Amino acid sequence: MRVARFYAPGDIRLEDIPEPTPGPGEVKIKVRACSTCGTDVKISRFGHHHIDPPRVMGHEIAGEVVEAGEGVEGWAAGDRVQVIAAIPCGECEFCQRGSMTICPNQVSMGYQFEGGFAEYMIVPRNVLAVDGLNRIPDGVSFAEASVAEPFACAINAQNLARVGEGDVVVVIGSGPIGCLHVRLARARGAARVFLVELSRERLDMAANLVQPDAAIASSEEDAVAKVRELTGGRGADVVITAAASGAAQEDALRMIARQGRISFFGGLPKDKPTITLDSNIVHYQEITIVGANGSSPQHNKEALALIADGSVPVLDLITHRLSLDEVLDGIGIVSRGEAIKVTIEP
Q1: What total of structural domains would you count in the chain?
Q2: Which of helix, strand or coil describes residue 316?
Q3: Is the peptide bond before 54 cis (omega within 30 degrees of 0)?
Q4: Which residues neighbour 63 within 8 Å (Cβ) at sequence distance 6 or greater?
Q5: How far is residue 246 from each of residues 43, 157, 216, 243, 273, measured CA to CA in Å?
Q6: pLDDT 10s digits, 254-312
Q7: Is 157 inside a domain boundary?
Q8: What is the spatial distance between Cα 16 and Cα 13, in angstroms, rounded to a whole number?
Q9: Does any domain span residue 202?
């Protein structure tokens, strides 16, 4: 079978390897769609300390069950499934209290386990143990289901930031996650949603699809001043930084309303992880700042349900569909910001 394997930074190889066989407690699937993201770009350039090469990449996975291993119940050939990416242990104190996103024993598809840039793959017993193999609802395509994983991360963040009815929400960053945040905020009852992006070209591409109440190109105008103007000086109830930018995090504090909530969704580069933050604003204006780390199996189920009932459409966010042999082209498209979502269909 054909796979895309990471060997070293700058060295991803398309190879033919034997098809895997499921062991006890495992499920073999035929991959029908595996979407790409910025993490794939970072791995291709810098590797990752949790990846022991060679490793099949890809973690936004949807496919069809081919065979269930010994002892597996409830799954049969032909079942359409979506696979979680981040796999909690299910047993530590954090998992036991329902905080699976911060499990210290977390492992991931495409990191410790072979990923979805392949014709076939094994869903490990770790995934099944935490109910992380999800049935794709009728009417949801494999490509749409592959977007459930990043969408689940947005759900986690907006839960933590308590996005709700009547909120004015600012999303900084117009990539696929930013687009998902705009649509999810609307589905949760936000009164207005503004989208901020440095690149005019990228902003226009995203805004054309998700239609924010205001699209602000921060390379052309002061985004903080514009948000203040649009809110009559009050600021936004919620600001979500869906970009790996310290400047965006600093701007968030300057455009937030009193008692507002800020989600530091995008992590910062490891060589520049600090920002300058006026803690007196946080103190006197009672600002809440929350992080957001991935998603739980339950968030993935919620994402599939919201896609299925039409609350948050995702199909139009997939701007490029490529074959497995074109995966390197796909990663390049993502790295250059030329797409919203690139989906590989082996």
Answers
A1: 2
A2: helix
A3: yes
A4: 29, 30, 31, 32, 33, 80, 81, 83, 116, 121, 142
A5: 21, 18, 18, 9, 8
A6: 999 999 999 999 999 888 999 999 999 999 999 999 999 999 999 999 999 999 999 99
A7: no
A8: 10
A9: yes
3-class SS of residue 104: coil
* Cβ pair 194, 257 in contact under 8 A: no
Per the DSSP assignment, residues forming a β-bridge with 14 are 4
Structural domain harbouring 134: 2-150+295-344
Residue 98 lies inside a defined structural domain of this protein? yes
Answer whether 148's CB lies under 8 Å from 300's CB: yes
Contacts 24+ apart (CB under 8 A), 187-192: 187/306, 187/311, 187/312, 188/158, 188/163, 188/164, 189/164, 189/165, 190/163, 190/164, 190/165, 190/166, 190/238, 191/165, 191/166, 191/167, 192/168, 192/230
pLDDT tens-digit series, residues 199-246: 999 999 999 999 999 999 999 999 999 999 999 999 999 999 999 999
Other Cβ atoms closer than 10 A to 258: 12
Q: Which of 247, 264, 291 is the last residue of a domain?
A: 291
**What does the pLDDT look like over 16-65, one tens digit per residue?**
999 999 999 999 999 999 999 989 999 999 989 889 899 999 999 999 99
**Structural domain contains residue 92:** yes
Whether residues 263 and 313 fall in one domain: no
CATH, residue 218? 3.40.50.720
User: Same structural domain for residues 9 and 146?
Assistant: yes
**Token duo for residue 17:** 């390897």
Task: Tell me: do 61 and 41 sit in the same domain.
Answer: yes
